Amino acid sequence: MNAPSFLFYFFEVIAAGAAGGLLFVRNVFYGALLVIAVLLALAGLYILAFAEFVAVTQILVYAGGVLVVIIFGIMLTTRLGGKPLVIEHARSVSATLVGLAFFGTLVYLFSQESFEAHPAKAAAPTVLDATQTLGVSLMSDYVLPFETAGILLLMALIGAAVMASEHKSKKA
């Protein structure tokens, strides 16, 4: 087995294992950590597919930004009585049956499809050209939406910190 094949299976097992672990974890914080593991494994798969920009964006935006804010919010908020937020599995049997039916449908649909190789197409632009074009476009044509999204994320983070500090000051 060559290195790319080994790495593909390695990242696939991590992503599938962490995603499967989400079904059984009861603590929301551990669930968020498993989502980070899934996103990092997907970034590894993107790198193997020569989509380096998508992988870096996946790590920076999702694993590095959004989920860190979610974990920050989870750690600052607690249920009444100081108990951590725990997910109850009230409908786990019905959810399992629906999931198995969905999985069976996917297996059936994929087994009916013939995956044939198509003739080679013209080469896509190089990674450097596509990434450079996107970077120039973000910093020239789309600078206002780009900066607005950054300010909006900053405001959400500050708002979460203020709400958490007000909640703690009312308790004391």
Structural notes for this entry:
It contains 6 helices and no strands. The longest helix is centred in the last third of the chain and has 29 residues, at 143-171. 75% of the residues lie in helices and 0% in strands. The termini are far apart. By secondary structure, the protein is mainly α. It is found in: Cell membrane.
How far the N terminus sits from the C terminus, by CA atoms, comes to 60 Å
Task: Give the rounded overall mean pLDDT.
Answer: 80
CATH class of the largest domain: Mainly Alpha
Q: Could you say what the CATH topology of the largest domain is called?
A: Four Helix Bundle (Hemerythrin (Met), subunit A)
**Spans with pLDDT under 50 lasting ≥5 residues?**
none
- The best one-word shape is flat
> What value does the Rg take, in angstroms?
21 Å
What would CATH call the architecture of the largest domain?
A: Up-down Bundle
Number of domains: 2
Helix content class: over 70%
Strand content: under 5%
State the fourth-level CATH superfamily of the largest domain: NADH-ubiquinone/plastoquinone oxidoreductase chain 6, subunit NuoJ
N to C succession of SSEs: HHHHHH
Largest sheet: none
Structural class: mainly alpha
Separate helix tally? 6
Care to count the β-strands? 0
Family: Belongs to the complex I subunit 6 family.
Keywords: Cell membrane, Membrane, NAD, Quinone, Transmembrane, Transmembrane helix, Ubiquinone
Catalytic activity: a quinone + NADH + 5 H(+)(in) = a quinol + NAD(+) + 4 H(+)(out)
Membrane topology: Multi-pass membrane protein
